[in-house]
Amino acid sequence: MSPRSDAVRSRERILDAARNEPGELRLNEVARRAGVGVGTVYRHFPTVHALTEALATGDLERYRDLARRAAAEPDPAAALELLVREGLALQLSDGSLQAVLLASEDASAEVQALKRELGEVTAAVVDAARRAGVVRDDLTMDALRHLVCGVEYAVRVGGGEGRDFFLDVVLAGLRSRPLAE
């Protein structure tokens, strides 16, 4: 059974209000801005994390699609660079995406499935790059995720400056080390 039209409208108003909420989300403030009761917000989103997931779902789907495109790229080095550069751009465009990616528990089955597929496809891209010898043998998916999150943080702290510089440094550091002579 599909939700009532007034429930759909309330949900959209809540999401719009949350998107425009400066700083940390507070469900009471989101309710006030959306023009709905706090109980309505809690019926749709029982926790701040559930609301954060709802806000990030579209970008999470785009990230998954990006990972699929990267996995289809025949050049493993180009695939990894595509995933890292465009993945960072997505994370910078949506502050809630990083919180959802790093959360150990998910509020929705949809987000859980998206994160699982994103992780599997990203691991395949990293593994392909390692097997091709274009990145360090010790690069793991978790290490890559932490590096991208670190670059995101550095760019945000720097007021949006330095993104390409930081990415170039990280990507250069990931490349295979030449054998010692």
SSE inventory with pairings:
Elements lengths: L4 H15 L7 H8 L3 H7 L3 H25 L3 H18 L1 H8 L6 H23 L9 H17 L5 H12 L7
Helix pairs in contact: 1-2, 2-3, 4-5, 4-6, 4-7, 5-6, 5-7, 5-8, 8-9
Number of helices: 9
Overall average pLDDT: 90
Order of helices and strands: HHHHHHHHH
Total number of strands = 0
Shape: elongated
CATH evolutionary superfamily of the largest domain:
Tetracycline Repressor, domain 2
CATH topology of the largest domain: Tetracycline Repressor, domain 2
Q: Report the radius of gyration as a whole number of Å.
A: 19 Å
Approximate helicity band: over 70%
Total separate domains: 2
Major sheet summary line: none
Share of residues in strands: under 5%
SS-based class: mainly alpha
What is the compact description of this entry?
The protein is an all-alpha fold.
Structural description of this entry:
The structure is a single chain. By secondary structure, this protein is an all-alpha fold. The chain is elongated, with a radius of gyration of 19 Å. Helix content is 73%, strand content 0%. It has helices at residues 5-19, 27-34, 38-44, 48-72, 76-93, 95-102, 109-131, 141-157, 163-174. The model has no long low-confidence stretch (mean pLDDT 90). The protein has 2 domains: 1-46, Homeodomain-like (Arc Repressor Mutant, subunit A), CATH 1.10.10; 56-175, Tetracycline Repressor, domain 2. Helix 5 (76-93) runs antiparallel to helix 7 and helix 5 (76-93) crosses helix 8 (141-157). The chain has 9 helices and no strands.
